[in-house]
Sequence to fold (625 residues):
Amino acid sequence: MAGRIRQADVDEVKSRTNIADVIGERVALKPAGVGSLKGLCPFHDERSPSFNVRPQVGFYHCFGCGESGDVYSFLRAIDHVTFTEAVEMLAGRIGFSLHYEEGGGPAPETAGRARLYAANAAAAEFYREQLGTAGADLGRRFLGERGFDAGAAAHFGVGYAPQGWQSLADALIAQKFTRDELISAGLVSQGKRGVYDRFRGRLVWPIRDVTGQVIGFGARRLFDDDNGPKYLNTPETIIYKKAQVLYGLDLAKRDVSREHRVVVVEGYTDVMACHLAGVTTAVATCGTAFGADHISVLRRVMGDDTTAGEVIFTFDPDAAGQKAALRAFADEKRFAAQTYVAVAPGGLDPCDLRLQRGDGAVRALMDAKAPMFEFVIDQRLAAFDLASVEGRAGGLRAAAPIVAEIRDPALRPGYTRVLARRLGLDLPEVERAVERAARSTSAGQDPASRRPANGPAAQAASDADGSPVLERTTIATLPRTKDAALERDALMGFLQFGHRLDIALFEQAVALPFRTAALDAVRQTLVGADTTRPGWSADAVTAVREPYRSLAAELLTSPFPARDDAHAVNSTIDLAHNLVLRSLDREKTELLGAIQRVSADSEEGRIVRLRLRELDVARQRLIEA
Fold:
């Protein structure tokens, strides 16, 4: 029976893992204050980044949708894995050997994600080795004829699937993988007489997720007697979702994030050609059209929060390519970056262009890009005879909505003039048509789509039984008082830098009741906290009762108002002193009122005067400190 992972190991793996490295593989993170990073939230669509990460405390929080947690929570949410699988994934990442209680071992992985990743990795190595065999001669020639040598094939992990029915199956079963695991991974298919290899007699490209793990394959037909499709991909599995995967993103992500630029091409060889030509931000879809999920992935990797970025699509000039361009345009508004289209002369794709005209021609293609709006306007107008009055009127009706959809107010007038020139019409007439189209688009918009996007944690509604759901408390909704400001900043410092404070001062400060109820609920979880234990502050946030947990997450992840780390610690110490001073002053005020009500010569009066002197001494020591 499988045992539970020892808690000490769970804590150790978390303490050795930099949460920014794990999240940074999926989200472009930028500095956002002392010890804080920020990026576009992977859990909801947003224009400007509200997803904050604090590597020092191992915690993330989105100020837009309210999602928060530690590195295990992130993996569970983003990769849909169990807690145990998340721990095992990170342990494998850092080479840590886990121990299980009750004498057990890891949970059975017969159909688990870890085994599917392992099976795909083993298959990729098998295919890679097969490319060097005599049977792969046709595959090597295919690559060579397209300008790819052995070094290029190795860089992209290209391999060859032998023509035999069970070559891969036999090799992996010999490595202790089961038939069920190979079926679940999409590497073999089930027939009447048993399993057989899904890819046979084909050139094979490993498809990796953004972290570099092999999750599937794309395979190109080589032999004339192969009656299958030209390209065959891994079927949908629990780790391979073609609508969310972009080929080459694992290689391109660093440059995509740095340059805020991505080039979307149509095939595996086009990605190879672009990268080898120096266009290292090229990616491609895997057997499916470019869609909304692909956009979400790219926006997070790009850090797509300004119009300074670039997304360049390359399309074939044929009907299918034009259809793909219009489909991409339908989703264009999801990008904050500017979108462009690059069409090579003669209808060449990047692979053929590189082969015929060299690397420089591929780079020049990207430099000669045309704005997506201009490209789509031309596509719409191509359906009309602009030499006739009727054709120009039809073209105006078809193209005006495109100009009306331009978000940037600085660009719309320019494209209005472009459309007027294309049609040969007076500018005022085209301007009126664009304004009518803009009003029509606004009036026809679904009211729900105009509401601000909020995550589930931000909803204030009613349960099914009609009982009200407590509204989420945030930093923005706190009272604007001097006491609330002191308590807010102090909690922010305690959660973020409490492990750097003198333990006696920390314990003294968090033991004092707060005057703001929401902040006091957060303070209570810090009483008795072991600040020397890794992850203590994230655990404290998790322990805060609702509806104040999201507030605690904001306090933990908000940028602390300080110039640098050292100043942040000193400021937190000052805030702790101020809390203690406030408590001393409050007690002194109460005692000064009490001394008026007792006899100066009484024992009670003597005790009050003694306590007042003690308070003055304690206050002076704090001020001097």
